Amino acid sequence: MKKLFRTGVACVAFAASMGMATAAQAQDSASADAFAEILDAFTLTKNTDLQFGAVVLATGNAGTVTLNPTDGSRNCDGGSGDILCSGTTGLATFSIEGGTTGKTVRIDFSEVTNLVNGVTVGGGADETIVLSGMTTNKTLVTPAAGTSYYTASLVGGGSTTDFSVGGTISFDGAETVGTYTGSFVVAVDYL
């Protein structure tokens, strides 16, 4: 009987301790720290526009013209025939003034519009040339999932971080003679 009584008391004590542990955990608390980082503001300025130069197309000849953002070289690819490129070319250039020294910013291209013929010869309807493949001479980041983007490390301290932009225009061979213009937006923000 003594043995049975001791076992019963031990079981009751064990069950009571389990109940108290559960109640204590339900009333437990923990703290966490909070952080914020203040960064210097910066200003993005466009210095020059993107200029592909003059292009001569054979009728019905599709192709592309690409400007390399690193060295400004122009590649004229006729695909099914010759494309003749001439005239002055120029990369679009931008400056980021200020910002926190050594911090990384992300460079994205948005609101890219096709080039539209605003001065059509012969009274034809406006034509368009596709503007795409916007690139910069800064570091390309390709995450495992998601969209690729470019980054730059800020010089800061009152100095500027400069970068240039190139891209590709595509022709279907039905474009009419004239001057084609369009635009694109460069967005820069801290990572």
Salient structural properties:
single chain, 191 residues, mainly beta, Immunoglobulin-like, 8-stranded antiparallel sheet, 4-stranded antiparallel sheet, 1 helix, 41% strand, elongated, signal, DUF4402, DUF4402 domain-containing protein
Please report the first level of CATH classification, the CATH class.
Mainly Beta
By helix and strand content, what is the structural category? mainly beta
Secondary-structure element series: HEEEEEEEEEEEEEE
The overall average pLDDT, rounded, is: 84
As residue ranges, the low-confidence spans are none
- The dominant shape is elongated
Q: Kindly report how far apart the N and C termini lie.
A: 74 Å
Total separate domains: 1
Number of helical segments? 1
Pfam family, one: DUF4402
Organism: Allopontixanthobacter confluentis
Protein name: DUF4402 domain-containing protein
InterPro entries: DUF4402 (IPR025514)
